[in-house]
Amino acid sequence: MTAHEPGRTSLSRNGAIWVLTLTGEHDITTTKRLDEDMEQIAASGTSVVIDLSRATFIDSQVIAWLVRWWERSCESSHLHVAIATGEGESPVTRLLELVGLADTLPCYPNAPGALRHLNTNTQTFAR
């Protein structure tokens, strides 16, 4: 049996919008790092695409993290969140459908679509 190797994250910017990309498998072992990245983003008072299109697995702790940050963005006039889940039947898309969040969270099949949404709507978000 091999030991679990946590997934990787990267944080970049696309203009004024942050992109937090998760690659590989993510569970409770990466949520602290994800929270640190999101705190940095929230402090900058901007929008973020959480790109899960390269994630091969997320567990319930990561789903709870997603919901927590989405709820926080709903309460904020400065932080806006969009989620890229992956094209077609990606593992993340399928999981979010199974738990009933695919139609609740602001999900898009890819990062460019999520970026377009944030670029188009950032000026008109009514909080």
Task: Give the helices and strands, then pairings.
Layout lengths: L7 E7 L2 E10 L1 H17 L2 E12 L1 H15 L5 E5 L6 H8 L8 E2 L2 H11 L6
Parallel strand pairs: 2-3, 3-4, 4-5
Antiparallel strand pairs: 1-2
Helix pairs in contact: 1-2
Which strand order do you get reading across the main beta sheet? 1-2-3-4-5
Gyration radius over CA: 14 Å
Number of strands: 5
- Shape, please? globular
Question: Going by CATH, what is the homologous superfamily?
Answer: STAS domain
Overall mean pLDDT: 90
The third-level CATH topology is Transcription Regulator spoIIAA
Distance between the termini: 49 Å
The major β-sheet equals: 5 strands, mixed
Structural class assignment: alpha/beta
Which residues sit in consecutive blocks of at least 5 with pLDDT less than 50? 123-127
> Please, how many domains?
1
Number of helical segments with 4 or more residues: 4
- The proportion of residues in beta strands is 25-35%
**Helix fraction by DSSP (H/I, runs of at least 4):** 40-55%
List keywords for this structure.
single chain, 5-stranded mixed β-sheet, Transcription Regulator spoIIAA, alpha/beta, globular, 4 helices, 127 residues
Concise synopsis of the structure shown:
With 127 residues, the protein is of the alpha/beta class. 40% of the residues lie in helices and 28% in strands. The protein contains 4 helices and 5 strands.
